[in-house]
Amino acid sequence: DTEVTQTPKHLVMGMTNKKSLKCEQHMGHRAMYWYKQKAKKPPELMFVYSYEKLSINESVPSRFSPECPNSSLLNLHLHALQPEDSALYLCASSQLTGGEKLFFGSGTQLSVL
Amino acid sequence: AQKVTQAQTEISVVEKEDVTLDCVYETRDTTYYLFWYKQPPSGELVFLIRRNSFDEQNEISGRYSWNFQKSTSSFNFTITASQVVDSAVYFCALRIDFGNEKLTFGTGTRLTIIP
Fold first, then answer.
1. Residue B57: its pLDDT value, please?
2. Is residue B99 pLDDT above 90, yes or no?
3. What's the CA gap between B109 and A49, in Å, rounded?
4. Are A82 and A113 a contacting pair, CB within 8 Å?
5. Strands, E, within chain A: which ranges?
6. Dist. CA A41–CA A50, nearest whole Å
7. ∠ CA(A102), CA(A103), CA(A107), 5° rounding?
8. What is the distance between the alpha carbons of residues B32 and A98, in angstroms, rounded to a whole number?
9. Percent of chain A scored above 70 by pLDDT?
10. DSSP state of B108
11. Beta-strand pair B3-5/B59-61
12. Rounded to whole angstroms, what are the CA distances from A21 to A54, A78, B28, B42, B79?
């Protein structure tokens, strides 16, 4: 099983809502990632978890709160988002060695109204 | 700091033509990895290839081939006899070894294959 599964596929939320994005992998990978991708742009790294601990936070606003409950799951909690946060949010996983490829999910297309 | 440049923003070719996507990278590290990913309209980034900095052998996989040249810091991707299913955005990416899990992407090339 070489899949990274993300739910939901689409999400529309208001600026006062609280929602969560979920990501799951069963490849035994110990590194998991959140990327944000705006239309016609490359993915931008938001967070990296290594062995379920946050190892990289790319200066992401606190309205985005990641959580790694176990080695297979990664969540991204959203609160008080802005319309400019509308984007495709991609989850990925990899083995921990530096050169390993990332496996990506199909993403959650988020619209903030 | 690492940087990846994909100068071709959009390319359109007629089906069955060959097409080459260019990628130029910058890094001070001697050990690094280069990747190509395909992003079809469905959104998922699909891994195509990984090469490490010590292996300059070109690689062929079916209709796909890659030309890695350290002398020019380039890692170009050629699709032979293109098909409509090849239409996608293609990203070149760079990752250095150890201590940094960040994958640096180029800006992508949107490839359209015209039937």
1. 84
2. no
3. 29
4. no
5. 4-7, 10-13, 18-25, 31-37, 44-50, 53-57, 64-70, 73-79, 87-94, 103-104, 108-112
6. 26
7. 115
8. 8
9. 96
10. -
11. unpaired
12. 17, 8, 36, 18, 35
Interface test with B, best of A3, A56, A91, A101 (most B CBs within 10 A): A101
Provide the token pair at A57: 């936070």
pLDDT surpasses 60 at A1:
no
How near does any CA of chain A get to the CA of B102, in Å? 7
- Nearest-by-Cβ selection for A98 from B35, B42, B101: B101
Over residues A22-39, mean pLDDT: 94
Q: Would you say how long chain B is, in residues?
A: 115
Most A CBs within 10 Å, among B23, B37, B44, B96, to test the A interface:
B44
Identity of the amino acid at A24: E
